[in-house]
Write a structure and sequence with these properties.
The structure holds two protein chains of two kinds.
Chain A (H helix, E strand, L loop, with lengths): L1 H16 L8 E3 L21 E4 L4 H5 L11 H5 L7 E2 L19 H11 L4 E2 L2 H8 L13 E2 L4 H14 L3 E4 L16 E4 L6 E4 L5 E5 L4 H11 L1 E2 L12 H6 L7 H4 L2 H4 E7 L5 E4 L13 H4 L8 E8 L1 E2 L3 E9 L2 H14 L4 E8 H10 L14 E9 L2 H17 L5 E4 L3 H12 L1 H8 L1 E8 L2 H15 L4 E7 L4 E8 L4 H7 L2 H8 L24 H14 L13 H4 L1
Parallel strand pairs in A: 5-7, 6-7
Antiparallel strand pairs in A: 1-2, 2-3, 4-5, 8-9, 9-13, 10-14, 11-12, 11-13, 15-17, 15-18, 16-17, 16-20, 19-21, 20-21
Chain B lengths: L1 E5 L2 E3 L21 E3 L1 H15 L5 E8 L3 H11 L3 E6 L6 H15 L3 E5 L10 H9 L3 E11 L4 E8 L2 E8 L2 E5 L9 E2 H7 L4 E5 L31 H10 L5
Helix pairs in contact in B: 2-5, 3-4
The chains are: A alpha+beta, B alpha/beta.
Protein name (chain A): D-2-hydroxyglutarate dehydrogenase
GO molecular function, one term (chain A): FAD binding
Catalytic activity (chain A): (R)-2-hydroxyglutarate + A = 2-oxoglutarate + AH2
């Protein structure tokens, strides 16, 4: 099995590379089941095709970029006459079929749910369901007929136990702000919305440990902590809608990761409900606990495919009073890198964000975002960097930052810059960086890629993509430079399969070749479930599937996502 | 012509202010302090006038404890040429500030004195008017547009009044106080922050200016506005009618 998957992965790659070559590839057309405006034309596009059968030869295999394929022995491959069945999904038209093992909802099910939850928490209203069926970018659309809103783990446990016995598939949903179609149903999965689980249970000022329910909205937690003099270890643009349970399920990164680390470090405990309804209490509040396997980590970033998170224990940090923000201009990408290197050394412990955007992103923001104002209007620069410091001593921090900035100016790393003199200026600097996704949405169609790459290579991809697409689309690069996380966005007047064919699979292959990750912080969801092999070896993916089998033997939790469906169904 | 701009250090506009526990005032310890937004607008206007060739020098002045120097430095980074810091207690009332400003005007002899229409901490909106009175200069308050005529030595000021605009013509020297819509203040850029480090800030004392600080006012107490009750979501129209009738007593 392991070998088969490895080979499948190899062939998958080759097929993509050699679409137009002389290989014998039989195409079988299949319409995507999640019909939306973005995939209407997928039946005529290459990306929408299913490659049914292929033969692959050795030399071609050597040309493959996949890093882990180098481990594959040639002997294994020579025996290969490969038949496989795998879909090549485009952004929104990932081709999956409804798993026939799943049941459909009947009236007895509804009676049962109303009995355990009461009528209010069983939603069948068409309008409400329409919103819940669609992701916020309107890219993915399911056709669920039922949304349940459990109030606590006991209710959720009853729901899941029942769904598991009836083989009813479910999709957990928090704020539904995901970017990869992970939080909306693909077909008719029951939506389990966590919004009613929204109370703060406990907060300890000495340790900074916050225990709350999974449906708490991030911004509410931020304002609760603000009154206590603390901050959440993560902050992101969607904070007004996204929920902490969803943040943890997707292992969200955000703007402060460079300072406070990933959720794998700050989440101290979880309570989750498994597919069979068992409530697993791992809700520790300890920073150190080496008793056995640290299972909570399995659920951080598993995108609701292993369990549904109901409670969260998270380590928060004291809110420090001195925050300084500089908005800087750099002439080239190498200067941005050098600036990062210097910032880590010279600002050290007070550095709390290091973000970058290119001229194209800046231009979009200035044209499409309300209230955006260029802090450096005197010239157009190729790159802009936003540096934030957070510390406890205003005058020390300012002195440190100014000394760093003076040095950066003198050594020509920075061409120009502005230092926020008050909070409103600071907010307006952040508004530019945080408003890029909104500006992109307003500009038209957008293809979004969230990639982890070695910092020195990161921007090469943007430039190569620009050459590939020419005048057809506007290629925009921005992201968390401090974490090596690039948000590559391609903006076009409308969605166009010809553009998509230029982007994918090129972007994944490029990332894989440079040993990057095809999903830095957005997750795989539906969009990239089948693309997992670009970043993970087949053995790893196989092990993931085995874990999924143990925790969710019927595969009812968030099906068709994260792991290729061939492995779990 | 020189332009003098009054600059006040206040609790940052975006900070949610807290009342001191003894109700004597607003907590300023460990709170972000910034330049009063209306003073920023005043300074921006002075810089624009200078850039248009109508003035030769912009002087920022501030009265208060030593921390005011940081705020003046911000003003220098925005583009003021030099600054004067008058060491004084943190709490100064408009009349005292007006007297101190008058004394500085008599030393520096600017052709124009620009102030914010009010400071966002005490909302007094008196200093500009008082100093104009003390100097016996014409005043254009709440300015939303300022046009200078170098030849005739006059300033034309548009004022925002209820339901419209009033246009005044002032003989220079004059006092102008600035409203929100006059301009959008610039950011302090790095090159200017660096330059500001070598710009002079002159230190003066209240005694040097021969002003006697005497307060005719006493703050009795400062309190927060009563907290608004949170709203409730009702489940039916009947419940709403019931509440309007029996709780709010409005129907």
């Amino acid at each position: 099995m392991v070998m088969y998957n490895r080979i499948t992965a190899a062939a998958y790659r080759l097929l993509n590379q050699n679409k137009h070559s002389s290989f014998k590839i039989a195409h079988q057309r299949q319409l995507s089941p999640n019909f939306s405006r973005y995939n209407r034309s997928s039946s005529t596009s290459l990306a929408g095709f299913r490659h049914h059968c292929a033969t692959v030869n050795l030399n071609q295999f050597h040309a493959s970029y996949r890093w882990d394929l180098q481990k594959l022995s040639l002997v294994q491959f020579q025996n290969l006459s490969l038949i496989h069945h795998r879909s090549f999904g485009s952004v929104a038209s990932t081709v999956v079929q409804r798993n026939p093992m799943f049941s459909t909802i009947n009236s007895d099910d509804l009676i049962y749910f109303e009995k355990i939850l009461g009528v209010k928490k069983v939603i069948q209203d068409h309008e409400e369901l329409q919103t819940a069926n669609t992701d916020w970018m309107h890219k993915y659309k399911g056709s669920s007929k039922l949304m349940l809103q459990p109030e606590n783990a006991t209710e959720l446990s009853q729901i899941l136990e029942y769904c598991n016995s009836r083989r009813l598939a479910v999709v957990p949903q928090g704020g539904n702000t995901g970017l990869v179609g992970g939080s909306v149903p693909v077909f008719d999965e029951i939506i389990i919305n966590t919004r009613r689980m929204n109370s703060i249970i406990f907060f300890d000022k000495v340790s900074g440990v916050l225990v709350c329910e999974a449906g708490c909205i991030l911004e509410n937690l931020i304002s609760f902590l603000d009154k206590e003099g603390f901050i959440m270890p993560l902050d992101l643009g969607a904070k007004g809608s996204c929920q902490i349970g969803g943040n943890i399920s997707t292992n969200a990164g955000g703007l402060r990761l460079v300072r406070y680390g990933s959720l794998h470090g700050t989440v101290l405990g979880l309570e989750v409900v498994l597919a069979n309804g068992s409530v697993i209490d791992m809700l520790g509040t300890l920073r150190k606990d080496n008793t056995g396997y640290d299972l909570k980590h399995l659920f951080i970033g598993s995108e609701g495919s292993l369990a549904i998170i109901t409670k969260v224990s998270i380590l928060t940090s004291p809110k420090l009073s001195s925050v300084n923000i500089a908005f800087l201009a750099c002439q080239d990408y190498i200067s941005c890198q050098k600036l990062l290197f210097q910032a880590k050394r010279r600002l050290g412990e007070i550095l709390s964000a290091f973000e970058f955007l290119d001229a194209q992103a800046m231009n979009l923001v200035l044209h499409h975002l309300d209230g955006a104002r260029n802090p450096l209007p005197s010239a157009i620069y190729n790159f802009y960097v936003l540096i934030e410091t957070t510390g406890s001593n205003e005058s020390n921090d300012k002195e440190k930052l100014e000394a760093f900035l003076v040095h950066a100016m003198e050594s020509s790393l920075v061409s120009d810059g502005a230092l926020a003199q008050d909070y409103s200026q600071a907010t307006s600097f952040w508004h530019i960086r945080e408003g890029i996704p909104e500006a992109l949405m307003k500009a038209g169609a957008v293809y979004k890629y969230d990639l982890s790459l070695p910092v020195e290579k990161m921007y090469d991809l943007v430039e190569e993509m620009r050459i590939r697409l020419g005048a057809a689309a506007n290629v925009v690069g921005y992201g968390h430079l401090g974490d090596g996380n690039l948000h590559l966005n391609v903006s076009a007047p409308q969605y166009d399969d010809a553009i998509l064919a230029q982007i994918e699979p090129f972007v994944y292959e490029w990332t894989s070749r440079h040993r990057g990750s095809i999903s830095a912080e957005h997750g795989l969801g539906l969009m990239k479930a089948e693309k997992i092999y670009y970043s993970k070896s087949s053995e790893t993916v196989q092990l993931m599937a085995s874990i999924k089998k143990i925790l969710d033997p019927n595969g009812i939790l968030n099906p068709y996502k994260v792991i290729p469906s061939s492995l779990v169904s | 012509m020189k332009i003098m701009v009054a600059i006040k250090r206040v609790v940052d506009y975006a900070v949610k202010v807290r009342i001191k526990s003894d109700k004597t005032g607003v907590e300023t310890r460990n709170v972000k302090m910034s330049m009063n937004p209306f003073c920023e607008i005043a300074l921006e206007e002075a810089l624009k006038i200078k850039e248009a060739g109508f003035a030769s020098e912009v002087i920022g002045v501030s009265f208060g404890p030593v921390e005011c120097i940081d705020t003046l430095r911000t003003g220098l980074a925005m583009g003021a040429d030099r600054a004067i810091h008058v060491d004084a207690p943190a709490t100064l009332y408009p009349l005292a500030v007006a007297k101190l400003l008058k004394a500085l005007v008599q030393i520096e002899k600017p052709g124009l004195l620009i102030l914010g229409k009010q400071a966002i901490d005490d909302d007094c909106n008196q200093t500009g008017q008082m100093v104009a009175g003390l100097l016996n200069w014409p005043q254009g308050t709440f300015a939303s547009k300022v046009v200078l005529d170098k030849e005739k030595k006059i300033a034309t000021v548009d004022r925002e009044v209820d339901g419209g605009l009033e246009t005044l013509c002032l003989d220079l020297p004059a006092v102008i106080t600035t409203d929100l819509r006059l301009n959008q203040p610039r950011y302090a850029t790095l090159p200017n922050i660096m330059k500001a480090k070598s710009k002079p800030i002159k230190k003066m004392s209240v005694q040097e200016l021969k002003v006697e600080l005497r307060s005719d006012l006493e703050v009795v107490q400062v309190t927060e506005p009563p907290a608004r009750k949170p709203g409730v979501i009702l489940s039916s129209v009947d419940e709403l009618i019931d509440k309007l009738k029996n709780e709010a007593h409005v129907i």
